Amino acid sequence: MKKKYVLVGTGGRARFFYEALVSTYKETSQLVAFCDINQTRMNYAVNYLKEKYEDCPPINTYLAHEFDEMIEKEKPDAVIVTTIDRTHHKYIIRAMELGCDAITEKPMTIDEVKCQEILDAVKRTGRNLRVTFNYRYSP
Q1: Given this model, what pLDDT does residue 13 score?
Q2: Lowest CB count within 10 Å: 15, 16, 29, 139, which one?
Q3: What are the angstrom distances between the C-alpha of 100 and each of 34, 85, 129?
Q4: What is d(CA 28, CA 53) in angstroms, rounded to the nearest whole number?
Q5: What is the tens place of the pLDDT at every residue in 90-100?
C-alpha cells in the first residue's frame, strides 16, 4: 500500500518534494493534495506535474483555512510542510494533532518558543517529525 502525502506551501522549496513523489517514489508514495494561501500557485504546481508526468494522479487543492478539512478528506500518512519558516510550527503541530507524521524543510521553525511547542506536540501525540535540507543535493 502506498504512503499518502499532502504538501503545504507550494512555493520554491516544494518542487523538490512534489516532483520526487510523482516520479522517483511513485511506486511507494502518492501525493494526494496541495494546501497553500495562493490558489494560483497550487494550480501552477498541479499543471506543471500534469504536463511533465503524464501518469501523474489527480492532486486536489485546498486553501490554508481548509487544512483540517484536507486532512479529514485525504487521510494522509504524512504532511510535508514547505511554507514560509514562520508558519512551519502551525502546520507541523496541527498535522500531528490530527494523526499525521510531519516532514518539514529546515529550519524547523524560527525561535525557541515555537521549537518547544513542536517538541511538546511530538511528545504529546507520539507522531514523527523529520526535518530535511533539500539543498544538500543541489548541484
Answers
A1: 86
A2: 139
A3: 15, 20, 9
A4: 16
A5: 999 999 999 99
Here the cell at position 75 is: 487521510
**pLDDT score of 129 more than 60:** yes
Q: Is 80 helix (H, G, I), strand (E, B) or coil?
A: strand
Asked if residues 108 and 136 have their Cβ atoms less than 8 Å apart, the reply is no
Question: Would you call 6 exposed, middle or buried from its count of C-beta atoms within 10 A (0-12, 13-18, 19+)?
Answer: buried
> Please, are residues 28 and 35 in contact by the beta-carbon 8 Å criterion?
no
Rounded to two decimals, what is the model's pTM? 0.94
Contact indicator for 74, 7 with CB cutoff of 8 Å:
no
Q: Which amino acid does the sequence have at 61?
A: T
Q: Which residue has the cell 517529525?
A: 129
The residue whose grid cell reads 518542487 is 15
Q: How far apart are CA 23 and CA 139, in angstroms?
A: 19
